Amino acid sequence: MGETRExxxxxxxxxxxxxxxxxxxxxxxxxxxxIHALLGANGAGKSTxxxxxxxxxxxxxxxxxxxxxxxxxxxxxxARRHGVTPVFQDPALLPDLTVAENLRxxxxxxxxxxxxxxxxxxxxxxxxxxxxxxxxxxxxxxxxARALAHRPALLVLDEITAALxxxxxxxxxxxxxxxxxxxxxxxxxxxxxxxxQEVCDRATVLRxxxxxxxxxxxxxxxxxxxxxxxxxxxVGAVPAAGSTAARPTGEKLLEVTDLGDGGRLKDxxxxxxxxxxxxxxxxxxxxxxxxxxxLAGDRRAASGEVAVRGRRLAGRHPREAVRHGVALVxxxxxxxxxxxxxVRENLALPLSGRRWxxxxxxxxxxxxxxxxERLEIDTxxxxxxxxxxxxxxxxxxxxxxxxxxxxxLLCFDLTRGIDVGTKHQIYALLRSxxxxxxxxLMFTSELREVPMVCDxxxxxxxxxxxxxLPAAEADxxxxxxxxxxxxxxxxxx
Amino acid sequence: xxxxxxxxxxxxxxxxxxTGATLLAFLLLVAVKAQSxxxxxxxxxxxxTSTLALGYLTLAQGVIxxxxxxxxxxxxxxxxFNCLSARLMExxxxxxxxxxxxxxTLAGALLGALTGLVIARxxxxxxxVTLATxxxxxxxxxxxxxxxxxxxxxxxxxxxxxxxxxxxxxxxGLAVPGLIIWYVLRRTSAGLGIYALGSDRQAAFxxxxxxxxxxxxxxAIGGLLCALGGLxxxxxxxxxxxxxxxxxxxxxxxxxAVVLGGIALTGGVGGLLGPVVAxxxxxxxxxIMLARGVDPAYGEAVKGVVIVxxxxxxxxxxxxxRKT
Lengths: 493, 324
Known about the structure:
The complex is a heterodimer of chains A (about 500) and B (about 325). By secondary structure, chain A is an alpha/beta fold. Chain A has two domains: about 10-230, 3-Layer(aba) Sandwich (Rossmann fold); about 250-485, P-loop containing nucleotide triphosphate hydrolases (Rossmann fold, 3-Layer(aba) Sandwich), CATH 3.40.50.300. Chain A has helices at about 45-55, 75-80, 100-105, 110-120, 135-150, 165-180, 195-200, 220-230, 290-295, 320-325, 335, 345-350, 360-375, 390-405, 420-435, 450-455, 475-485; strands at about 10-15, 20-30, 35-40, 60-65, 70, 85, 155-160, 185-190, 200-205, 210-215, 250-260, 270-275, 275-280, 305-310, 310-315, 325-330, 410, 440-445, 455-460, 465-470. In chain A, helix 12 (about 345-350) packs across helix 13 (about 360-375). Chain B has one domain. Chain B is about 80% helix and about 0% strand. Chain B has helices at about 1-35, 40-50, 50-65, 75-90, 95-120, 125-145, 155-160, 170-185, 190-200, 200-205, 210-235, 245-260, 275-290, 295-324. Classes of the chains: A alpha/beta (about 500), B mainly alpha (about 325). Chains A and B meet through helix 2 and helix 3 of A and helix 1, helix 9 and helix 10 of B.
């Protein structure tokens, strides 16, 4: 085992899908005993590279070496035999099979997996449970434990922390550090630059299908990463939030009183005013999912009421909410969009829901065109929304309501898995929506967004609003403490 | 830990509940039949022999649906092997007939494997490919045997159907392949792969399941069972009938029985006992009505209503199960 042998090395790896070039030429090297971050804006080629490295896709050209030996993976199983084991964002556990059957499928020893789960300080589930009945964060940890049980030389973690509660994310970091201590390597794909600072040794940034920068991660290196990710594109200036008074003055658009769903959500009360972006911050499972589903008309209230401009919502159907001007943009873009249909049809959908009969093509064209222009939606692949990048898909999901009209926009973790540049465009858009005299209620799992975008922030804990604070004062530490229910944030009003 | 154990047993109970309910419904129908028209060993023999071919087709459909596919050509395959064997077996000795039967079974597995290969390689949906191959098999059947006819050795009929009122030969004939396939599905990695493929294709691929192999295996098992179905039809009628309508009806009934028997059309869920019992139940409904003096035409309508109701109730139960 020479020190010079890289755990993984690629040379000029390239891949195109028909006319679209996904990877132009990527040189990447991961050393033994290293945690290496792979970064890049959406569409930079990260996911294509990960698929190639894990045997899901074959490259068109270029070389891949694992432990100094050239390899050409035929399948994910083949990659695993060579010591490259991935954990994907969507757990690769089959929902209808039990955990035990899932392990048998990959030839993983159950005892080994149990041991790994204990190392992570997790209570193992009953292995006779069908995987589909376990909570998603636990499934992801099971997937990780399964990967570890194969003792990989290179562990590939593809945005594993994107939807994990922070205590689980900490466990993942601990696993990464242990792997490094044992001489293994980790390739870590993430959008969260703070995580890179926290655990990674080196980072490689991709842009437009090339590796543009590889450097040793250092204190305050975020700017360098962002600059490399964006290239020449200037970072859109973050609009100054909080310039409006922390104590809102506009008309009450949405008023929620003692709202509960009979389950996790209990007695939530707050008001959203015109011209305001109100943030909601919470750890996983504190009732925020239920709150947004209720407000969007997708779940019935057991107690309390929701009023829009003073009119009470019965909460029977999402259509009722939409008709009252309350529109939801979920974090899962697949849930919001018709993936096989065009950008235009997706944007025009609220118009056609309003009445039956022929579509007024001129009106539709005018409204849709205006929104595409305003949101700078990339229309190169406009025939099928699924072929757009994640950020552009999310713009379509918001743009739909700009076409349809609304008073209150509910945004649930809108920027999850979106690149920095597009994020900033979306922040600016939300601010401008508020300036038009409408209201935005946004849940975010990225706490740094709160002071950047919001006027006020509500902190939810245990199904209740545990506190409220002006966004300008809401730094991450304060929000995190409040979200953990440690200290009650200052009550306002 | 306690909670998850309970959840596991709960979900296992839910999985077994459907088969249990199917069995219960079947026993209820048997009781009603016994009241209205008797249910002795002759009745059992009639039931098992006249549904034997359909039973094989249902097992075939079951394995394929569990693997995430659907086969609209099972009936046509049955008709093809019915005509082929009836033509070849006519006037031959018992021994030759057995050889022909063995050859037909093998050919069925090969045809199925070919279908699976085409589906897996082309990426064309199962429903389209098997719709097309169904027409091909129907045409071939007409080519082999243009008009109803052909024959088989009497001993072959006795072997498959039993003699007098003994009902165990057809029951064994159904149970033995059924058990072997159950073992393959539940106790081998090939079978686990079929469940995995039906459960989530992408996740199965990422987990390293050889998708091509699993799909070809599922369709090969299906083809083999369809050939058995054709042989059973030959034994039952003593000849061959190339008309496609019987095949179409059989295909649709096999899908209905699979659904009634607790296999999810989305794949990955279900067993083999339920569908077979469902076939018998579907046979008993018109039989009971006939015994009670109701026009058999109503029997079909009642069968249809029962299918809708059962699937509706099952769907509601599943939805509630998920909510809690």
